[in-house]
């Protein structure tokens, strides 16, 4: 092959591939498709929010309480059950990473979808009180546990827990859909249970609602890569996983306030060997194992001698165990979870929340460019 023919071939190949990959990236600009969660952010709603192939929310709309009340012609004292058919504020898919997608609402709210076994969706009111209306898209039954907790069984049998973390309430409205009223800085947490919702799940939901649980950390495995997803239930707690292996996890948990909190670690069987005895230490000191959630709450409230932890079987589709760790006080604590022989770690590949510079399809383009370059050099040298 002549040099001129080779150059023309490379140009044609790259020109053919590049537009297709760019078009695919643009077409997917409002959609998210993860291992568990898929949805589309179109106009004023999230639509067809699915977990493990089952649509659990037909639509999710968010609007500031002031604008919604003005549009509906109701007063500020209206019951959440009477708030129906709200006109949602415009949404835009802001960022998406391996384990989560963030959607911004013009009402000032933030919606974050987490690609974990619970398909967690967190709606944060941020600086302005918000209404959230979830269209269930079919017959559904509901169990109102309290003003801040609602359990829904959808038409396909999936159970969902709607939990308000902070100030607000959630209920089944007059149209048979879910309405949540969130005060500023409060959050609506939606967890789906495609398999079965257990009594341990109920306890976790209760801790989220009353502020005892600050975050959930999901230890996942994506092929050969270890990935981590953190679901925050408040604004003042951060969890950073610094080291991971099949037998050991190191985390740094930071809080602006000094009061203790519970961090729930949900570990998949592929990511962490929870079959052996699990041990937890906080700042190098061994934490005692708790025998009940009441013990965990006492430890988080500083009413016990040190931190506590409890291991339970997880109902998540891919998690083998949940480890609830009650840290007795803050501001910054180093938490280590280990099991079995505690083998040497290779480091963690935690999703840092940043977006990749290479979008869908661009991997093919890069590979083709590299291959073309290698072939070009070889032919050039031969000539």
Characteristic key phrases:
383 residues, alpha+beta, Beta-galactosidase, Chain A, domain 5, Immunoglobulin-like, 2 domains, eight-stranded antiparallel sheet, seven-stranded antiparallel sheet, 19% helix, disordered C terminus
Structure description:
With 383 residues, the chain is of the alpha+beta class. It folds into 2 domains: 164 residues, Beta-galactosidase, Chain A, domain 5 (Distorted Sandwich), CATH 2.70.98; 155 residues, Immunoglobulin-like (Sandwich). It contains 5 helices and 26 strands. The chain has an 8-stranded antiparallel β-sheet with strand order 5-6-7-8-15-12-11-10, covered by helices on one side. A hairpin with a 2-residue loop joins strand 10 and strand 11. Helix 1 packs antiparallel against helix 5. The protein is globular and about 60 Å long. The N and C termini lie close together (9 Å). The C terminus is likely disordered. This is PGF-CTERM protein.
The overall number of domains is 2
Weakly predicted, low-confidence segments: 5-28, 343-383
| Annotation, overall tally of beta strands | 26
* Sheet of most strands: 8 strands, antiparallel
